Structures are given as C-alpha cells and as structure tokens.
Amino acid sequence: MQKTLRLGWLWLTLLLIIAIVSSFVFGPTGFKITALAIPLTIRLPRVLLGIFAGGVLSLVGAVLQGLLQNPLVDPYTLGVASGAAFGTSIGLLFGTKTTSLVLIFSFLFALLTIILVYSVSRIKGRITKTGLVLAGVITSFLFSSLTMLAMVFSRKPLTQTIYLLMGHLGIIFTPANLILFIIAGILACALSIYLFSYWRSLDILATNEEAAASLGVDARKITQEIFIISSLLVALVVSLCGSISFVGLIVPHIIRLVFGPNHRRLIPYSFLLGAGLLLLADIIARTIAPIELPLSIITALFGVPFFIYLLKTRL
Amino acid sequence: MNSALELKDISFTYASSETMLFKEFSLEVKVGEFFGIIGPNGSGKTTLLKLMQGFLKPQKGSIFIFSQAIDKFNRRELAKIIGYVPQENFFAFEYTVFDVVLWGRNPYLGRLENPKKDDLTKVMEALTITDTIALKDKSINQISAGERQRVVLARALAQQPKILLLDEATTHLDITHQVEFARILKKLNNLGLTIIFLSHDLNLAGLICSRMLLLDNGKPVACDRPEIILRSELIEKVYRVKPYLQNHPASGLPQIILPL
C-alpha cells in the first residue's frame, strides 16, 4: 500500500498518457487508426487545451478547498467564472465572428470580477475567508442574471452561447488566437507553480488562524495572494473553455481520499488526474451522441453521483 | 536573570469597544520562569496573550522579546522564539499526528524545501518528550482531546521555542491528562524553557507556577508567588466568591475549595 502511494505520480501520469492516446484515436466515427492523420491540426490543440483546463481547474480546486478549509468549495466559488461567462455573452452580442475578441472580452470581464469580489470582500480593511465566499456567491448571482439578459437580447441562436458557456475544448486555432493560447499557457504554468509553492502554508492553514500564525504562516496575506492567483488561473481557463463543472470539485477529493491531505502531493496529483479525467470526459462528449455535447453535461453526469457518495460516506 | 518577555506601559483598547482594557500596563517575565496568568472571564488574559505574540498591537507602549522590540520580528522569526498551545484545536482535514508536529519546523524551512534529517530528528524528540510517539501515524481527528493537546504541545516544541505560551491548554482535559500534561510542562521548565501558562484552574496553576499574575478587568491585582496570590481575600475581591483554602498535603501550597 505504502509503495503504491509513493508511486502515485506514476499511476496518474500513466492515466494521463492513456487519456492522451485515446483522445487521438477516438473520434466521432469511433476508433479509427487512420484518424491519426487528423490529429496535429485538430486533436493536438484539443488535447493541450484539455490538459490545461482539467489540470488547472483541479489544481485551483485543491488549493481553494485547503485555503477556505471547506471541501465543498470549487474553482467557481469565488465568482470568476460568472464574470467570464458574461464577457463571453457580451462578446457574442456584438456579433463578432472572431474568436479572439470573444476570448479577450471573457478574460477582461473575469479580471473585472476579481476586482469586484476583492473590494466587496474587503471589510474594515481586511479580507476574510467568509467575506470572500459571500462576495463570490453574490457576484455569481449578479453576473448570471446579466448573462441571461445578454442572451435574451442576443439574436443569435442560443445553442452557440450555451456551448461556449457550458464547457468545450473545440477552439479552432487561427494564427491570430494561437498567440493568445501560447501566452495563456505560459502564464498558467507560471501561476500554477507559484500556487504550488504555498503547499506547506496550505497544510498549516487547516488549523486555527492564530495557531497557524504562531507557526509563521500569515493567513491574511496568503488568503489575498492565493485569491488573486487562483482567480487569474480560473479566468484563463474559463475564457478559453467555458465553465466546465465538477472537475475542480471532485478531483481534489479523490486525491485526498487516496493519497491524504498533504498539499505537496495533493496539488500536483490533482493536476495530473484532472487533466486525464477531462480528456476522457471530452472523448465521451464527442463520441456518445451524433453531435458533440457540452463538456459540463458529461462531467456533471459522472460527478454528481460520485459527489453524493462522498457526501453520504465521507463528509 | 534576563528578561524573556516584557510589556512596557502598554495601553490597549479593542476597536469595537469604548472602554480601555489595559492602561499603562507593565509586566516582565524572566528567562526560566513558569509564569501563571489567572483571572475571571473577560479580565483580559487572552488579550494579553495575543499582545505577547503580536497578533494585536497596543495603542501605546512597547513589547520586548529578549529585549528586542516585537515589531522587529516577522512571523517566521517570532515562530522560532515563541511556541503557542491554544485551548481548542481544529483540523479541517485528516492529517497524521506526524504531519502536524512537522508543521512546527515550518519557520526553519524554505518555501519549496523538504524537511531535512535534522528536522525529522527534532520532530521525533518532540513526540518522545510529550509521549505521543505511538500516535504518530494516526489521524489528528481520531485521537482523544487529551492526546491531541499533547500533540499540539509537541508541535510547539518542534519549533524549538525559548518561550512557550499556553492558553487554557488543560481546560478540556480529564484529570489523568491534566496531570500528565502538567508533568510534561514541569519537566520542560526544569530543562530551562520559559513558560507562560494562562488558566482558569487556580489549583493547578498554583501547583506548577513559580509566579502568578492575577488580572481583574485589565488591571493587575497582584503578581507574586502562588502562596501569596491564592489568599482568600484576594480571590474574593476578584472573583466575588469567598473560597475555602487548604494546604496541599504534599507540597504545602494553597489549594482552593469551592464554597458550596
């Protein structure tokens, strides 16, 4: 058992490799070895985007659950996704056909949400965990209704908007948005590594704030930094792939159940498992029905029963 | 004797309160003392402990740790000098006892640095002295309250502190664990550790402390050896209850008996 645990990263990497290979060979027409010819133009970006989205969402979920000491928190609790979704729908409202502009709109609104949540949660000059969660939930409500409003005024068919909002990996790269994707990728790597460097502080934050302070961990300072960094990461993912649900909630739970709560393992392992599972979910999303399904439908159909199981047995 | 911790003419008021809790309050704890702080609920004991750790800042006056102003230290530096055992301990996830004690090495470790052999030795020593080594692989949430309190003490010891602050650390323990815990503290004090022990348990404090401060509403009523503090007129004045007093059969120290 102990040995299996120590080799955890190996199993998770193996899973990820299997998921990547499967992503290349399974298409809407089922398994086809000749399908390997399409990959580099269509499937490779898709696989990269899947690793990026699933990995980052799960990593942020793990970090936020640790920071807020709450196993029910997910990457969207702090409100960023709702702002990004509103940005997407505004972008579509202006009838733009270039994906780059929609992406930029989405990211700008996500940044706006971070600033909004930050200032709402600042009470008497300090950020508290409760303040953050409440501000996040309130902001989500605000932007969800604004998104609805934008969709009502939009003359576009709703399906397109729903696809963009409910999660997809189907961006087609053009020379114009390729550069955006590269910047997002580099930024995401840097921010993820920076979040990981908080691992010991996140462990210690599982105890009372003052006890943590007596061990040299400044909870208030760390709360602010982690809020901003993880919100930026979520903003990157959501503006590129929409709000993919459940991955960031469930994956850290699975890792914690198997490998324990230590963030030194929890954070990187969550990245690996999240990336792998999202790729598998994407394979299902584009093969199970005649048309491609929004990713959140798949992640929720698998995620909800698992979450109920957790709720009944583990919490 | 050198001063371990000194509060000089401090005044402190909570932002939400109108009345001043401490007014030009001074206190000096010497190196090697086993210093007790007692007083009724709301007398300012916990506030005092927070001031001593820099969690709260006094509006006036200064606090010195080994003759250096407390503002000169950052949190990590302070964590190498002061260990803290709170009354209640909460753990959001199922860490093992060993993990929790290893957190005590945090102030000595860089951000991405893994614990070295020396850190693990320090953890094992802390587990040994608190008699928690048998628990080391158990989950911190699945041991008894008395055991958990010893683990938190071990965590504070792994910090290699020079001063140990205890905030009603024995309040929730049964007498078996109270006695064990008090014996460990006594042993640590004999090894030279300065201990500041905040308690509601006048009898236990009277037995283990070398000096005690009796607080009433932010004012120091008396600060002296236990046999001078635990006198019925002082206790009655502060607690508004007239207790019986008897001497401890073994040590001869005064013990309070409730007047029921």
Rg of chain A is: 19 Å
- One letter per element, helices H and strands E, the order of chain A comes to HHEEHHHEEHHHHHHHHH
The biggest beta sheet of chain B reads: 6 strands, mixed
Oligomer: heterodimer
Q: What's the structural domain tally of chain A?
A: 1
How much helicity do the residues of chain A have?
over 70%
Tell me the overall shape of chain A.
globular
CATH architecture type of chain A:
Orthogonal Bundle
Number of helices of chain B: 9
InterPro entries (chain B): AAA+_ATPase, ABC_transporter-like_ATP-bd, ABC_transporter-like_CS, P-loop_NTPase
Pfam families (chain B): ABC_tran
GO molecular function (chain B): ATP binding; ATP hydrolysis activity
Domain ABC transporter (chain B): 5-242
Keywords:
A: mainly alpha; ABC transporter involved in vitamin B12 uptake, BtuC; two-stranded antiparallel ribbon; 4 strands; B: 260 residues; four-stranded antiparallel beta sheet
Descriptive account of the structure:
- The complex is a heterodimer of chains A (315) and B (260).
- Chain A contains 14 helices and four strands.
- With 315 residues, chain A is an all-alpha fold.
- Chain A has one domain (2-313): ABC transporter involved in vitamin B12 uptake, BtuC (Orthogonal Bundle), CATH 1.10.3470.10.
- Chain A has a two-stranded antiparallel ribbon. Chain A has a two-stranded antiparallel sheet with strand order 3-4.
- In chain A, helix 13 (263-287) crosses helix 14 (295-313).
- The longest helix of chain A has 29 residues, at 39-67.
- The two termini of chain A are 23 Å apart.
- The mean pLDDT of chain A is 85.
- Chain B has 260 residues and is of the alpha/beta class.
- Chain B has nine helices and twelve strands.
- Chain B has helices at residues 45-52, 75-79, 97-102, 117-129, 145-158, 175-190, 202-208, 226-229, 232-239, and strands at 3-12, 22-30, 34-38, 60-65, 68-69, 82-85, 163-167, 194-198, 211-216, 219-224, 244-247, 254-257.
- In chain B, the strands form three sheets. Chain B has a six-stranded mixed beta sheet with strand order 6-7-8-3-9-10, sandwiched between helices. In chain B, strands 2-1-4-5 form a four-stranded antiparallel beta sheet, with no helix packed on it. A two-stranded antiparallel ribbon of chain B has the order 11-12.
- In chain B, 40% of the residues are buried.
- The mean pLDDT of chain B is 93.
- The interface between A and B is medium-sized, with 24 and 34 residues.
- Chain A: Its main location: membrane.
- Chain A: This is Iron ABC transporter permease.
- Chain A: GO terms for molecular function: transmembrane transporter activity.
